Amino acid sequence: MTILVTGVRGNVGSRVARKLVAGGLPVRGTARDPAASGVPDGVEVVHAELTRPQTLRGALKGVEKVFLYTVPQGIDGFVDAARAAGVRHVVLLSSIAVTWADRDRNPIARMHLGVEEPLRASGIGWTFIRPEALATNALAWAAEIRTDGVVRCPYPGSYTVPIHEEDVADVAVRALTTDGHRSAAYALTGPQSLTQQEQVALIGEALGRGTRCERIPLDVARAAMERVYPADVVETVLAAQAMSDGRPATVLDTVEAVTGRPARTFASWAADHAADFR
């Protein structure tokens, strides 16, 4: 049973592949450049791109299950290639945003629904993994923390429930390798609702030095974010931060329900990633 892992160098995909290999399963990973570094040991790497479905036929040969990143461009071609190859189950890394009331207007939700909906209609077995906020989002603060230990943001008191990428990968591996997960959609969070300020402070504890958040004007934050992200995504993120400012977020126990053990704390994530902030 070969399992195809797309995004095999990614924060989640690399961990999914590593855990599958450790379990003795044959794993194939897709990459634009198979010769580049960063692929876990024991993974067969092939060239394939989700945005170019014509590259998928060879990658899917002999594959029964797929761990899939959300890439709406080319999803119809992926579904056709997966059906032709006899794929039986796709585990999709989606987003909890698809469950929100504004999902029809939310660009993050629309992007993920653009893959979820074709998979639902495909006739292939599916499982959707929907994390709320990946702890790796905090890596966006790395440059500021390295420079002076100050993270500048418009809403230091906004809450999220960050989840360690290892927990997301553990849930995905369970869905890929054990029964009972088809047609399931798992909303995932970490074990603690934390403000941005609290997350920054925990990174400082992992580093052994002081770190803090500094509030900046909203228009300054917007301008900085728009240099990196599309304007509609920036507005969605800022609106979510404003709504969660001073309002603790809901903590879910899905990781423990699926894997049998509690989700990792943000403090453990910060310790695991301390080198990224030094």
UniProtKB/TrEMBL annotation:
Q: Where are the transmembrane segments?
A: none
One Pfam family linked to the record: NAD_binding_10
Q: Which domain of life is it from?
A: Bacteria
Record-linked Gene3D superfamilies: NAD(P)-binding Rossmann-like Domain
Q: Which InterPro entries match?
A: Ergot_Alk_Oxidoreductase (IPR051604), NAD(P)-bd_dom (IPR016040), NAD(P)-bd_dom_sf (IPR036291)
Where in the numbering of this chain does the NAD(P)-binding domain appear? 7-178
Task: Supply the name of the protein.
Answer: Putative hydroxylase/dehydratase
Organism annotation: Kitasatospora sp. 152608
Gene this chain is encoded by: smcC7
